[in-house]
């Protein structure tokens, strides 16, 4: 399975009739492995700041999380594992795996909880697989989205 398939089938899937606005899988070095059509073009320093927050939780809180020039207020995540950001009725979830960052961007009517579920489920799966070194078989989940 290609990285693009993970984005197309596992991140950009329908959940209760809703889907993410954009999604991507990005290497820790900022290189794009796969992305949806509308994923914002980001600056290297934005990825560097995100990586720093995973190493030093809370470092993004004073300045906010920037992605593609959009500023998100950092809200409670999981230190070292998940960063969540909010901007009005939209937001972003970033899950760190051994080798990559999984990004999901949403806007209402999709909820933060739905975005978190999609991004973190794939991220947890890839983390358990050693960062995505092996390619899994696809199974269906109760959400209707393919499960890893």
UniProtKB/TrEMBL annotation:
Keywords: Actin-binding, Cytoplasm, Cytoskeleton. The keyword Cytoplasm applies. One of its GO terms (molecular function) is actin monomer binding. PROSITE patterns: PROFILIN. Its main location: cytoplasm. Occurs in many kinds of cells as a complex with monomeric actin in a 1:1 ratio. PANTHER family: PROFILIN (PTHR11604), PROFILIN-3 (PTHR11604:SF35). This is Profilin.
């Amino acid at each position: 399975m290609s990285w693009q398939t993970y984005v197309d089938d596992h991140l950009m899937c329908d959940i209760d009739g809703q889907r993410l606005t954009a999604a991507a899988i990005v290497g820790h070095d900022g290189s794009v492995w796969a992305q949806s059509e509308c994923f914002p073009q980001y600056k290297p320093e934005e990825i560097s700041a995100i990586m720093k927050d995973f190493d030093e939780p809370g470092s993004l809180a004073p300045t906010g999380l920037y992605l593609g020039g959009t500023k998100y207020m950092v809200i409670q995540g999981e230190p070292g594992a998940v960063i969540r950001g909010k901007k009005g009725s939209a937001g972003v979830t970033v899950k760190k795996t051994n080798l990559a960052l999984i990004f999901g961007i949403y806007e209402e009517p999709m909820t933060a909880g739905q975005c978190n579920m999609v991004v973190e489920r794939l991220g947890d799966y890839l983390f358990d697989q050693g960062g995505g070194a092996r390619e899994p078989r696809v199974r269906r989940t109760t959400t209707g989205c393919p499960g890893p």
